[in-house]
């Protein structure tokens, strides 16, 4: 049904998910989807979304298929509307996406999904956009997606402009510049309980820690940039854990509380601390879901994987290298 009609109306793109080491939580402008604070992430080779976009003259609205099921297209249309305006077309599109990992379980499927959508939609509409413009486009779908346009290490700028034009990500390092490994311990396969957009609004409205979270972001970003520039893994890891736990303190102090952890999440954190006590440099980070991502050096991958696999409640451990930026598949 979503066959190309010719004339460049179809494009397919792949984008990889990313994990923030310094995280954002909170929006500066809800309509533009600009984040309240900047963030720094690594893009993961092993987790990705493939998305096909076909603009067609016979549709009366956008259609979105996710892993084979027809799904609400509201957020997808927000990105497609920008592409249509830019490409001066009023054609709607069929979008079909597949993730090679569980969708909506805190594995950053929105990051890879909207980055792949931005690249495929731009391509299908015949637009040639610079990475910065693609990053802004992806941001309108999901804040974290702005970073998945880039491979390796990326930094998202919160920006100050009223139109969101300075709220985009940039690459800090290519994957090969500092090869690291990330273990993803999957502790739950289902959808997460509260989506991040809603959770962020609730934290900003109710947590007494929200202001402190915003005020301390610039220091974390500066320290992370320095750790990356110096290839200082211990500093990167320690700061990642600190920033992650600070975010979860903010989540826990939200009313009603955002408790994204399950028992296996907590057990995995202790396992990582145990690895460090045994001399293996490994550091965890956790997003808006129960999965635990563990940063380590490639030489320690097997030890980290083995330790996580032994944690009760961990269903599966996926290992990943750092991955490339979003790209066309044709
Ligand atoms: O932009 P979203 O809706 O995917 O939210 C991302 C939220 C966190 O993953 C917790 C933090 C981050 O910077 O990725």
Explain what you see.
Helices cover 36% and strands 25% of the residues. By secondary structure, it is an alpha+beta fold. The strands form three sheets. Strands 1, 4, 5, 6, 7, 8, 9 and 14 form an eight-stranded mixed sheet that branches. Strands 11-12-10-13 form a four-stranded antiparallel sheet. A two-stranded antiparallel sheet has the order 2-3. The model is unreliable at 1-7 (pLDDT under 50). Residues 20, 23-25, 39, 110-111, 142-144, 196-197, 287-288 line the site of (3R)-3-hydroxy-3-methyl-5-(phosphonooxy)pentanoic acid.
Radius of gyration: 19 Å
Bound small molecules, by name, code or SMILES, are: (3R)-3-hydroxy-3-methyl-5-(phosphonooxy)pentanoic acid
Q: What ranges have pLDDT less than 50 throughout 5 or more consecutive residues?
A: 1-7
Order of helices and strands: EEEEEEHEHHHEEEHHHHHEEHEE
Helicity level, as a percent range?
25-40%
Sketch the major β-sheet: 8 strands, mixed
What is the number of beta strands? 14
**Relative strand content:** 25-35%
User: What is the end-to-end distance?
Assistant: 19 Å
Q: Find the structural class using helix and strand composition.
A: alpha+beta
**Average of per-residue pLDDT values:** 95
Shape: globular
The oligomeric state of the chains shown is single chain
The tally of helices reads 10
